[in-house]
Task: structure prediction
Amino acid sequence: MCETMDYVEFINELTGNNFTSVEEMYAGVPFLDVEDITDMVYWMGTSREAGKFNGRDIPLDLGTLQ
Result:
């Protein structure tokens, strides 16, 4: 995620919006929580269904997740 005024100006030029700050530009944008990402990685490393999702096995050290 870019948090500079240069990026805000770039987005304003690209979209025709008139954001005045980074906070205004990202207002209302949903972000993933750390817990959601952890759950996803755990699921992909331990679930047989995950192999169908991505087409291959993903090696995962469960020592840090248990």
Summary: Residues 1-28 form one domain. The chain has a mean pLDDT of 79. The chain is about 55% helix and 0% strand. The two ends are 30 Å apart (CA to CA).
